[in-house]
Amino acid sequence: MKNDIYDDLFGKVQMGYAVIESMKLAQWKLFLKQGLGLHLADDSETTQRYRIDSHACRLLVNKGKAEDIQTIGYEVTDEHSLNRILARFEGRKLKVEKHTGEEAQLRGVDEFHRLTGPKGLGIELYVNAQTSGQPLNMLSSGFVTGPAGMGHVAMTSRLPTKVQRFYQEFFDARLSDRIHQPMAGGVMLDIAFLRLNERHHSVAIAATRGLRLDPIRTKVQHMNLQVASMDDLSNSFRRCKDLGFEMAHEIGQHPNDLELSFYVITPSGFEIELGWDALAVNESNWTPADYPNISVWGHKPQKAGPLDLAMLNLGNFRRGVASLLKPEYSPI
Hints:
The chain is of the alpha+beta class and about 325 residues long. The chain has two domains: about 15-125, 2,3-Dihydroxybiphenyl 1,2-Dioxygenase, domain 1 (Roll), CATH 3.10.180; about 145-325, 2,3-Dihydroxybiphenyl 1,2-Dioxygenase, domain 1 (Roll), CATH 3.10.180. It has helices spanning about 25-35, 80-90, 100-105, 160-170, 230-240, 305-325; strands spanning about 15-20, 40-45, 45-50, 60-65, 70-75, 95-100, 110-115, 120-125, 150-155, 175-180, 190-195, 205-210, 220-225, 245-255, 260-265, 270-275, 290, 295-300. The strands form two sheets. The chain has a ten-stranded mixed sheet with strand order 17-10-11-12-9-13-16-15-14-18, with helices on one face. An eight-stranded mixed sheet has the order 2-3-4-1-5-8-7-6. A hairpin with a 5-residue loop joins β7 (about 110-115) and β8. The longest helix has 18 residues, at about 305-325. It starts with 12 loop residues before the first strand and ends in a 9-residue tail after the last helix.
């Protein structure tokens, strides 16, 4: 292997798929197919596979007790770049396992390399996603994917510097900007947005300032998908509400990527952000900035009464305090 493992890999990695584990497969089918409007490619008693473009699988829902996103798959542009990433893992003495067979086929790939990433989130790397010629049967007109990938994930962490270092050291992620959001009780939430390519961010990392608390039960606080049109966004919003899925945050706009979006609570309890018209970063003139709020307008919770907010804050406080009693996993 050439001694070039530290050549810049920016633009060579994109978010390719997500693996969800849940016992609520019927609710997930209703949510993803009828609510968000995805194409259900395969459906069995233990597994559902969904498409949003030509890739054979973008979302995989497996029957299991976690009620969480277990894994994010990252597509690498070529074998040479993949080998460079694997060499970086090896240099850090991180355990990486190669998988083929049924596990790979369910994900729509020939093989993948897996390691345990920050917060215990599975990180899987692959090249050459399998594609399908079957026409899409979706309620949405389309989703924005392509060379920038399928969306992003956001997580809360008590070790935000280590999480950021993980993505920067192994994938050469770049900082897009930061948001500093005041929360209830005088808590300040600092959020760093990292990009792997022209998509404004593929990973967002949130942390409480000062005493590090993690009020989120799941590894991933939310996952983002981006629809092709404003009509797709508004129609999905109405469908999800009509089906009884609660909006964590109704339609609003972010100040940094300018995306219009809403956040809906999934059957497993974490959120999916469905967005439209997020800007792409122009590398020639981009300068990271700091913003004082996460939303320019909107993004109000569906349940916004005083009792609702009090119960939400109490639950977050309890989980945050409980997080102090257990260590957060970091691979580096």
